[in-house]
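Pinned message: reference record for Glycoside hydrolase family 15 protein
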Amino acid sequence: MSNYPPIAEHGMIGDLQTAALVSSGGVLDWWCTPRFDSPSVFASLLDAERGGQCSLAAENPGDGSEMTTRQLYLSDTAVLVTRFMAPDGVGEVADFMVPLDTGTPQVRHRLIRVARVVRGTVSFALACRPRFDYGRASHTLTVPDQHHALFHGPDTDLHLQSTTGIALRAEGEDVTARFRLSAGQAAAVVLTSTAGGDDAPRRPSLDEVVRDLQACRSFWLSWLRSCTYQGRWQDQVRRSAITLKLLTYAPTGAPVAAATMGLPEQVGGERNWDYRYTWVRDASLSVKALIDLGFHEEAYAFRRWLRDRIEARDTATGDPLQIMYRVDGDPHLTEETLGHLEGYRGSYPVRAGNAAADQLQLDIYGEASDALIVGGDIGAIRGWKALTEVLDWLSDHWDQPDEGIWETRGGRKDFTYSRLMTWVAFDRALRASQAFSRPAETERWTRTRDAAFRQIVERGWHDKRKAFVQHYDSDVLDASLLLMPKVGFLSPHDPDWLSTLDAMDGELVSDSLVYRYDPSASPDGLRGSEGTFNLCSFFYVEALARSGRLSQARYAFDKMLTYANHVGLFAEEIGPSGEQLGNFPQAFTHLALVTAAMALDDELAEARTRPEADEQVQAAKYGFTVPAEGSAADGTGD
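Predicted structure (tokens):
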């Protein structure tokens, strides 16, 4: 198991149609091409022996001296630099992909790795060991010359080309090289994936590689000029924005939930899902955040994609929408177990595809409606027509059990969050109808909205817990309800909401980290446990801030930032020892970081007018009290 680096020890690069992970040791151990959801070429992150990888790193001096590695992004870009520091020299490997910000899917993708030395002399070793189709398919190797190797797979070819200074040699079905550079020298290898049988790419020169590096850097610096965020956490918000962009499939505007599949929520457990798809919920919640950040083009591109899905009515369930799709809108995500892969540190089974696509999750209609409406008029014809068709269907189908936001596999229940989002769907549509003078079934929509409201208040509230609960006829708390004030269902200062927040704080929160729910109290049909959910932890920060608990919110936010990895990325969860767990990096987490930062900025801007009660609450949390003004304890009383 020592062959598996920690999940957090990675940076991500991508070209907006696919993405790859590079470990802090210089190992490219995850890459699916030509799309995010394509079979892998490198997947040693899921099986160190059979998955395949491409390593490019400085060789250990071998004299007993220590070599230190560090990894960073070039500021405000997706160019990843891994540094190797040894007594004889300092070397670097820069990994990047030139963005393909186009509406046309590409079959050819280039991943570039540049080695250079900035001090002394450094020896590098290259080992390229691809394994096609998740390691299931064999390949043939051809080495036309010392600067070109062709790995011919079943549907994809991989070309490995090197610049002067790197001589490639075959080693069985793999390719290796050793080379030595001195200060000021550089050399590069380029990995190009093509459709099987396509012509080989032209061998690049080092000058061309440098121009590609500058083009990549310029793209990201130019893209970030649209960012309007000027708050206190610019580095973290900008890194999250770049991460969200990297995880968006440019030809359709559809964001994927994460770059990976199969990474465990508990090491050794079975909660190992495929997240390389577009969830309606996750992507819809990102729209307002993107608009608030100034990225209108990305927000509108997803809205168009979402509208097209509604119009197509192409779902496996027959409902207007299903919870997730492939990046091109294909609704078929058949789940299979890859039995030949051992899984990350023995976390088995490894699943490709996602059977949850067939689940009924009624909350997605609320998030979709909000996404279609936020930011202005959704259109007089196509957009409004698509929305009304969804709402007409929802009017007849909202009041039934479903699998809920967390995609549990323990049976359908009457989830409070699903009813909350039903209320959102009709609330937003009624507002938009009035604001933009659009035709609507006003009476019918109003009846449904009000029925959902009454049901939540009457059945979703638990008198003994003094809190809103996960599903009716239970007393289980659920962190998804942290969104209740955010969506406008009630005020963040409402006593019932504050009581709910207190209940969550006492049961779901562990040192500012938030669990989704307690699986032991609400069985979800799966064995094992999971870590705290980063999405929920950032939602908790936002809820605290909006509820006036500003000191507690900022402290929780600052602590959450310490769980980011060395280049500012988050996986899905945090484990008991502070380790990152689950698929990586997760878009939903970075979205929630952005919204939490903006909420904190808003509330801090008004902090001078806040009552001192927040200080009392924060102090009490740590076991001491702040004396009231004029008391004997502060020296001003009698």
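Pinned by admin. Summary line: The chain has a mean pLDDT of 92.
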